[in-house]
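Final report, Chapter 2: Outcomes

The project's central promise was a pipeline that accepts a single protein chain and returns its three-dimensional structure in a standardized token representation, suitable for archiving and comparison. That pipeline is now operational. To close this chapter, we reproduce one record exactly as it appears in the project archive, with the input sequence first and the structure output second.
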Amino acid sequence: MWKIQFENWGVSTTWKVKTAHFKLLREFLRSRNVFIPKFGLHIGQQLSKSLNEGWKQMPDVEMIYRPVEYQKGTDFYQRPISVTREKGKEDIKQSIISHAWTNLVKLYSDDDKYAGGVNENLKLKMGIFNGSCELAGISPEDLNKAVRIMLKGSALSHYYTICRENEPQPSLNAICESLKIHFEGS
């Protein structure tokens, strides 16, 4: 009966109808035991496909197959809880660190960066840097790595030179001292 009412419908016709109306129609048909899949295609395409293929009864139970994995060499399922918890803590910590670095990059405008120019003051720019790092949530241990975000131009090039020459990452004080000597001469 319902196929007769939608006799002239096709895929091109279904694109003209709003999705909300299709959802109502699909739910109505499903409530009347006509199977219209909910996933995979656009609702209009699913209805057109159902019209062309004919009526299908709703399945009694939608079974989703999910295999249970057992550890080899044991007779029962055993989940390594401690490894999962530690991994979860590491993931959360990494997420927090990434979030802090992203916030720091967003906080920094080009005017706040130190380029090593004649009219720039490293002490002032370091004050802005420290305030921004505190606001973004950068840990004190990571300040020497985050300092590159506040640099641009020749100051950034000099920073990479410092890092290349000193194999372990130099401290923030060493980086600032090198920048001050190189660009401000004192």
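Archive annotation: Residues 81-107 form the longest helix (27 residues).
This record, like all others produced under the grant, will remain available to the consortium after the project formally closes.
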